[in-house]
Amino acid sequence: MAKKKIISAIDAGNTKVCTLVAEVEDDGRMRIAGVGIVPSKGIHKGAIVNVAEAKETIRDSIKKAEQASGHRVESAYVAVTGHHIIGQNYKGIVAITHSGHLVRPDDIRRVLQVEQISNPGNNQKILHVIPRHYTVDGQEGVLNPVGMNAFRLEAETYVITAPVSPVQELVRCIMGVDVDVEDLVFDGLASAEAVLTEDDKLAGTIMADIGGGTTNITVYKDGTVWRAAVIPVGGHQVTEDLTIGLNLSFDIVDEMKKKYGTAFPVYEGRPENESVILNGHSVSYRGLCDIIHARMEELLRLIVMGLPQDEKNVLLPGGLVLTGGGSNLADIAALGSEALKIPLRISAPLNVYGAGDQLNDPAYSTAVGLLSWGIRPKSNAKIK
What we know:
By secondary structure, the protein is α+β, with helices and mostly antiparallel strands. The protein is 32% helix and 31% strand. The longest helix is centred in the last third of the chain and has 20 residues.
């Protein structure tokens, strides 16, 4: 009997560290065999701020996933986030000079390795080089030029980079617990793998993963990445504003937010002086919800900032897909639809197999998407 292929994923976030172990079936499907989730320590806004705490947390998460799956985690796909992640457009041009002038796979690699892409500068590490389309002797919109006759090959690409130092610290922590890094994947791409369909990517859709410390954004159009960005604001910033506005501890107001709060409050028919009580602490219901509403509306507007407002419905008929733990906030979809005037839905990971209901939650989209990234044919090229 053939040995099953085992793949693993590690999402080390601001709120939790999630390790998943999956078995890849003969038909290409993956069955999630082990889950390890622990509260995060030593990580803030996608960066390691305490190496010892981060390593301990990652080790605990891996150990739980190993115990649940019966498999050892030897290597893993690892999510990368942080507000200094940059996405930029590049264009490469090469001449086809070999005999026959037929485009070969090596020519594809050459056009993706032009100087401007291979040296991003500013201490940036390339995470992804994503071909959008090619131009062959002036013929635009070519998706796969291999085998075509050409004298000149151009490639339009989207390049995602991250600062070297935070990435190195993350890799050092993973390898410090005796796990190799199979690949580094931008959080926004990983989450999109879990929650967007191919139709979403073709039609034009913006996806936002609202985490604890950051919100990762990926925009798809015509089946490829059109934009990627990170906003250094997430669910924890809303809670921090509540601690100031309500003069209570972070843990208390965070629980109040989740239990009683709403992003789109309707006060009609409710007592004006209504209070909510938790562990002996009482606050105004309106005071709680007004802060949540204001901060979440601000975040939603930041997500679509940079898009041409008068054309967003044409460019992005798929609308906005929210995922991540922050999208679990009550009535956030109603707020988004009202404030942004575009279609909006909340999505948990699609097609989760083998893990029961535990991962059917937007909070686990990145981790599940990392596994999907690991088993799908790669449509993006990496510069080695």
